[in-house]
Design goal:
Layout: H1 11-14, H2 26-35, H3 39-49, H4 56-69, H5 73-87, H6 92-109, H7 113-129, H8 136-153, E1 160-163, E2 174-179, E3 182-189, E4 192-198, E5 205-208, H9 209-215, E6 218-219, E7 225-227, E8 233-245, E9 248-258, H10 273-281, E10 287-289, H11 291-294, E11 299-303, E12 308-313, E13 316-323
Parallel strand pairs: 2-13, 4-10, 5-9
Antiparallel strand pairs: 1-9, 2-3, 3-4, 3-8, 5-10, 6-8, 7-8, 8-9, 11-12, 12-13
Helix pairs in contact: 2-3, 2-4, 4-5, 5-6, 6-7, 7-8
Length: 325
């Protein structure tokens, strides 16, 4: 969306930190690292200078952000809720929006979609009650974007994971094919073996209409929805009954079904040519495995020099091998 309110990079507007007879402002330096997205540098900085971090707001913000970056959403949820409780009335609308947006992402990670919807309502309330944030046109645009995000999660299913019993007599080696689009491997969707693209940049499982019809995807959205992460692509939300990867079985997996032109609400699409770009990619793979499912695959390690990846389950390591493409 062209006229959205830019929240990133505005820490300095609501994190005024004081200097009490010290040559350096350690609190602000830490916030500058967080503001720049330098997560690991900020962790190193904190370890070396934590005795000099004096402001509770800065320390609490660092903890919440670190939990989120390290994929500890439960801890991050607790930290962000505490921040909003303690400082929600003093950090201003920009600060509140930053915390609410981060909190919404954490609830999404733990699949608490009711809380995601509730946070969307809180964000909309801030936009409506503080008209000094931006012009009416920009605020209306921002509100519409949050409403669309909210509608996306209203009926989204919760993924169920089952770690199946390990059979040591069966090889758990799975081959990755490395082609121009990335890393692909074989998985089973509703019992059908498909070529799957491993994509940490995708939010959900993603496939075209042909594949959805072939394997029996249940469509749950009544209208076309937009996915900004996929070049603004349009389609419908659906549910996959089952997905099998190594020893793990996932059930009720959300799927974004890329629509063909006959099923699109064309007035929602700014550039129809992007549909051809997305369709052409499916010549090399059948589906895209996004983060909502990837996060359910236990611990994953990559070694690009050895061209290997491992999915850990308890004390067992399931081997994925990269092949030349």
């Amino acid at each position: 969306m062209k006229n959205k309110i830019q929240l990133i990079g505005l820490f300095v507007l609501f994190f005024p930190v004081s200097v009490f007879c010290q040559d350096r402002n350690y609190d602000q330096e830490l916030m500058d690292l967080l503001q720049g997205g330098k997560w690991f540098e900020s962790m190193d900085y904190y370890e070396y200078n934590k005795e000099n971090i004096k402001e509770d707001l800065v320390l609490s913000s660092y903890n919440a952000t670190t939990y989120k970056v390290l994929n500890k959403p439960e801890d991050a949820i607790e930290a962000y809720n505490l921040l909003l409780k303690k400082y929600g009335n003093s950090i201003g609308s920009i600060g509140k929006l930053l915390f609410l947006t981060s909190l919404r992402g954490c609830y999404k990670d733990v699949q608490d979609y009711k809380k995601v919807v509730a946070i969307c309502d809180s964000i909309i309330y801030v936009y409506k009650t503080d008209t000094s944030l931006a012009s009416k046109e920009i605020l209306d645009s921002a509100i519409d974007e949050v409403k669309e995000y909210k509608s996306f999660y209203l009926n989204l299913p919760t993924i169920t994971k089952i770690n199946r019993k390990i059979n040591r007599d069966i090889s758990n080696q799975i081959s990755f094919q490395n082609d121009k689009y990335g890393l692909t491997f074989n998985s089973k969707l509703n019992g059908h073996e498909v070529t799957t693209l491993f994509d940490t940049g995708a939010e959900h499982l993603f496939m075209d209409k042909y594949m959805a019809d072939r394997i029996g995807i249940k469509i749950i959205s009544s209208d076309t929805v937009l996915m900004n992460g996929y070049l603004g692509s349009a389609g419908m939300m659906g549910v996959l009954d089952s997905m099998e990867v190594a020893n793990i079985a996932l059930y009720n997996v959300p799927v974004f079904v890329n629509a063909n032109k006959s099923s699109l609400s064309i007035n929602k699409i700014e550039d129809e040519n992007m549909i051809h770009i997305i369709d052409s990619a499916f010549n090399s793979f059948d589906v895209v495995l996004g983060m909502s499912a990837i996060k359910m695959l236990n611990s994953i390690e990559f070694d690009f020099e050895k061209k290997e990846s491992f999915v850990w389950y308890r004390n067992y390591r399931f081997l994925f091998i990269f092949e030349s493409g």
